[in-house]
């Protein structure tokens, strides 16, 4: 049986090797899906349509600046509402249509007029909607006003207001638990935040400080009660440590993947929109980058089952199909290993051999499906070879070498496939 387990591990490594040589396809398989759009605003609408047939309330947040919007998830969860993103100074027709579809009549704007202008507010009122603004003089006061709207909490989260990743890591969890997200800066806890904490000190049993000393120094936390810091060496490890901290209280049958950073500075948008849906399903948001961070990979491998629904939020630039497929393979192979271990632990089971054969058949089917996908990619590359060579003339030497490797990679692929088939055949004793 150990032979089978070692083979499944080999298959995992092998699939990763040949998958990394190919351009990801648009097809995503059974337990994975995508909620995306042409831009962050359309993505937020599609998230709303995925999670809500109707909602009395809609939370509006800026899609251009994360500052005031980081505290939106707990408000959204309180009212059972989606979060829709809009530009600071205009109300998109598609957003209007979504508000109408939801049959909403209550709008909550997150942030002051620099985040959502009075022009937008007036347009909302002209639609016959009741509009409430949760906004202060700055992002810190806005976080306090949002916290006050949640009542008297027994737990609060504190995150940096100078970055978005740490706040978004805890957002769906905080939302689900009715925990406000208070923002602070690196130099000191803002006076408005400190006053809020002081006035609620008798209620606050736990304060979760999300992020390391580099973003929230311990020296600034003297007035904050019952501190529990959750941090890591980077935003991805912090994200994983947040999930591990609250793992017993979240449902890992649904998982949302969202980009954790990027050059444009607006990569917060998809995770922000998804935080309301994740909270509704009591699901985590896992932050990812172009490649799979080791801490993230280990968390997925150790915690996400092969039957989980894994949802990429945003388009290919945010979470590529290659990354999504790689994550799917991790959980699938891990599931196979678990089933093999179960059989190994049940050595007195008379149906053990039949169970092993069934696992091998399932594994063969999984590999075949992946190979069909890859074969299509190879075919597309070969059929467009002349066009690719024309493009090569305009590429750098590094880009040209990489693309040429992709064109020639099918020979390597078939070697791997032959090896895999031999291994599978060898198991059919």
UniProtKB/TrEMBL annotation:
Signal sequence coordinates: 1-19
Pfam families per the UniProt record, alphabetical: CW_binding_2
Keywords per UniProt: Signal
The keyword Nucleotidyltransferase is annotated on this UniProt entry: no
InterPro entries named in the record: Bact_Sporulation_Assoc, Cell_wall-bd_2
Official protein name in the record: Cell wall-binding repeat-containing protein
Native species: Clostridium lapidicellarium
């Amino acid at each position: 049986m150990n032979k089978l387990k070692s083979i499944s591990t080999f298959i995992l490594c092998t699939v990763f090797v040949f998958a990394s040589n190919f351009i990801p396809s648009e097809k995503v398989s059974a337990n994975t899906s995508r909620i995306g759009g042409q831009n962050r605003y359309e993505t937020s609408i599609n998230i709303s349509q995925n999670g809500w047939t109707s909602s009395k309330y809609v939370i509006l947040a800026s899609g251009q600046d994360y500052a005031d919007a980081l505290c939106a998830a707990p408000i959204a969860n309180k009212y059972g509402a989606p979060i829709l993103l809009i530009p600071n100074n205009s109300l998109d027709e598609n957003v209007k249509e979504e508000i109408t579809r939801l049959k909403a009549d209550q709008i909550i704007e997150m942030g002051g007029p620099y985040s959502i202008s009075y022009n937008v507010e007036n347009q909302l009122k002209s639609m016959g909607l009741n509009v409430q603004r949760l906004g202060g003089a700055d992002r810190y006061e806005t976080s306090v006003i949002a916290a006050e709207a949640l009542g008297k909490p027994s737990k609060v989260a504190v995150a940096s207001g100078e970055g978005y990743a740490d706040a978004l890591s805890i957002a769906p969890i905080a939302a689900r638990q009715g925990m406000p997200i208070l923002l602070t800066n690196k130099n000191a806890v803002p006076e408005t935040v400190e006053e809020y904490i002081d006035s609620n000190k008798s209620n606050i049993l736990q304060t979760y400080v999300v992020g390391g000393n580099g973003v929230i120094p311990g020296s600034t936390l003297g007035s904050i009660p019952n501190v529990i810091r959750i941090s890591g060496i980077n935003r991805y490890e912090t994200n994983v440590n947040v999930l591990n901290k609250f793992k017993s209280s979240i449902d890992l049958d649904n998982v949302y993947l969202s980009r954790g950073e990027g050059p444009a500075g607006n990569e917060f948008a998809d995770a922000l929109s998804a935080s309301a849906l994740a909270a509704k399903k009591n699901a985590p948001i896992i932050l990812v980058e172009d490649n799979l961070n080791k801490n993230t990979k280990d968390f997925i491998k150790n915690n996400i089952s092969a039957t989980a629904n894994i949802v990429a939020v945003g388009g290919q630039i945010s979470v590529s199909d290659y990354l999504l497929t790689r994550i799917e393979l991790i959980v699938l192979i891990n599931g196979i290993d678990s089933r093999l271990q179960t059989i190994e632990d049940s050595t007195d089971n008379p149906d053990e051999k039949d169970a092993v054969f069934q696992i091998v058949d399932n594994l063969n089917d999984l590999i075949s499906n992946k190979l069909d996908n890859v074969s299509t990619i190879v075919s597309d590359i070969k059929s467009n070879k002349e066009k690719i060579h024309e493009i090569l003339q305009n590429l750098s030497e590094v880009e040209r070498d990489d693309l040429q490797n992709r064109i020639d990679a099918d020979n390597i692929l078939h070697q791997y496939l032959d090896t895999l088939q031999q291994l599978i055949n060898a198991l059919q004793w």
